[in-house]
Amino acid sequence: MPVRWWLIAAAAVVTLWVITAVPAGTIAGTAVGGVAAVLLIVLFLRYGGALVEVDADKFRAGRASIDRAYLGKAVALTGEDARSAFGRDCDPKAYLVLRSYLPGAVRVELTDPHDPTPYWLVATKHPEQLAAALTQSSVARS
User: Fold this and answer.
1) Could you list the residue ranges that cross the membrane (predicted)?
2) Phi, psi of 140 (to 5 degrees)
3) pTM over cut 0.90
């Protein structure tokens, strides 16, 4: 997660503490601020902690995994191409691992005839490396 997101979250917790503590007391402010801090930490860690991993047998992205035998063409996307892929050009049936603070993505076509998902779109810091790992028999982690 970007540092600025953590700073904004800290400012929000302090703000909640102040607007609760002034009228209701420091114990209430601490309780509200503590709950907000815990919720934000859990939310940030879950959102930013999506694991993307490629090994000899499987491709894992977020909570899902698929056998590499069902992977088709992998295309690295950066800049406007990545933004469009997650926005106006996105198929509603696609599996998405979106991390909006990352600059690139990889679109991986699926070849499984029984899977209704046409492709996976995975945000990553290094789209070229992930696409290369998916088209070769190498192992990678993002």
Assistant:
1) 31-52
2) -145, 165
3) no
